[in-house]
Amino acid sequence: xxxxxxLFFIGVSVVVFGQLGSLACANAYVLGVNATxxxxxxxxxxxxxxxxxxxxxxxxxxxxxxxxxxxxxxxNNVTIEISPPAxxxxxxxxxxxxxxxxxFTSQLACTNVANNTTGNVTISTTLxxxxxxxxxxxxxxASGSANNTDQHGFICLYGTVIxxxxxxxxxxxxxxxxxxxxxxxxxxxxxxxxIVASPGCGGIQFYDxxxxxxxxxSGRVEINTYAGTLTDGAMAIYSGTxxxxxxLLQCNDDYSATEYMPYIYRTxxxxxxxxxxxxxxxxxxxxxxxxxxxxxxxxxDNPCTASSLPVNTDGCDYTTWNNISATNTTxxxxxxxxxxxxxxxxxxxxxxxxxxxxxxxxxxxxxxxLYDGAISVYKSSGTCSGTLTEILCEEDxxxxxxxxxxxxxxxxxxxxxxxxxxLWVRFxxxxxxLGTYSICAAEVANPSTNQDCDNTKQLCxxxxxxxxxxxxxSADLTLSNRGCLLGNEHQSAWYGIQFETAGTFTFxxxxxxxxxxxxxVWKVDPIIVGDTGLLPCPPDTEPIxxxxxxxxxxxxxxxxxxxxxxxxxxSTCDGWVSAIDVEVGPVYYIMVDNYTANYGGFNIMxxxxxxxxxxxxxxxxxxxxxxxxxxxxxxxxxTASELNNDYFEIQxxxxxxxxxxxxxxxxxxNSSETIEYSxxxxxxxxxxxxxxxxxxxxxxxxxxxxxxxxxxxxxDYFNVFPNPSIDGNINVSFxxxxxxxxxxxxxxxxxxxxxxxxxxxxxxxxxxxxxLPAKGIYTVVVSAGSFYEVKKVVY
Length: 795
What we know:
With 795 residues, the protein is an all-beta fold. 1% of the residues lie in helices and 46% in strands.
């Protein structure tokens, strides 16, 4: 039980009189479970009808209106007991029932109670689960005066209850004050009620738990909560030198990022003093939640009072700020208004940082009560009072996912930054918005470029990946392919794996610095786009494994877990999901996301019974081409060097996906000279035949060449692949039975000419390679004699 105190805490053994209970199951009045019977009164004096299907199974005769209560399971047996009032006119026969929900399909207990007796039922409960109590007034009592139709009585719930350790102020749980919100998981399950004068918000104070922290030097803090199974809560803070004599400072309900959970920002606290925090569920709700306390700083309001922003070498170290004192900056700033000023209306604050040795800097921000901001970065040939010239400006990191805080990367090569020089960072809220936010800066010595699926990095073995990806890149994740990753990407890295042998596949992602890593795995089979096999990137289906669990420890796939997907809050969410039974052929994409966004790297270790198919081809293949000769196809390829090259297996396919072997050409073994090879397919498929080479070395390992396509329909044939192109590199293939010159033209979608290639000898022409200059949509035009055809290609 909670302690009861004098003066500020008034304690009694309570019998509550009044009309307790609800006429609807869904709005049932919450009761607490005590060690012994502590009665609360109820009145069932409303004529009405029962909910459909809600007549208890043991009810005798007809049943009239009912009232409802609910309670949260203690993890032990709970006895529900009703007893008659002193007034014999208010004593009515009743049916007492307990349900597992309001669908009336899970009745757990039922008993009839005569009007002058006490009755009870006992059920086994699960900690935190909700249970619903129904009291039905039975037949024979519906006529007569109001005294005859009214049903009064008492109800109590009792059993073994293990209270939380922080069930009262004198046993409050300690909270550490951090520079950035670092949520710790808590709950108010089985809490009792501390009898304190109402703080003035959040309804009646039920089942509260207590916390305390020491005020930091600045005297400014924000106390934030995040919903778990408790989704609607309230919070009050108190000061005092003794836990038994506390003074209310502030109360809040419904201001956190999770709409119905509480948030408090407080200034002017005495450094070193103790503050007590009281949390409860609205309407008596119980469940899990997260809570944190953060020191809040006030940044400089102009370049010459700029706050120092450290550039860390081992990942970001966030600090929390409030731009409440921001004003408009004037002076020699070029341009006067930031270049991404669609949201700029003044009220900016300033930071300064020193350029590190590599010159590469990542600056990231996290939302607090301010959730939409922007950053611009400046350099100066002089001091803060000289002319500041903007070098970068960034608004929204990931607007498509609803994340509107900026994340910016400063590349020394692009901006000619000198190590040791000073940069100024300007931050402001959308439309002049004020509030709290967090910011950090880190050196990104060797930035990677695989934050997008288009730049997927192939993994070949367990390795250390200090992939300091500086953002989420383009929007690869959508509602249709993100699975459990409800927050989309923050600092993401894409990897691809293929397997030599089928079997189980597991991996472990271990943060190098404390970071919350999430991941998803997709299985992708090649699809036919046009006339060639391509891998959809980003994937267009849900991931086959996914974890968005909270926590800064290791995560990954293992053989112990049984779930295949995890959200951020659940009782079994530990960051681990079950192993995958992989196949030979598909590509498995792994997207690793640093939710903490602190530029920290990680180690990834592979295990399982499968073998990864990733090794260096023992030959250097210069080219692989082919063309039709009447009803036969000639294949040509050449190598620049060979090492332990046993033989080439020639394979063909009708669809560019399913290949069969039909010929072998012996390799040269070992060579450092250019070697030419050829092979004739005398029985190609009708229309189009796809070819590839499987190179085999003396050790039994193998790898595949690119795929080419040849038409054999005695007519001109033209194709562009891959389409879409992930790197701007495209192949144009053309087979012609005429002797006319072939013209290949590439144009932008608006008609601007990119290149014209004239091919004088069409008999030798099969495939040409071209590089598109920039992302966009292009048209490729091929003409030869009377043949003229146009195809679109996307980069």
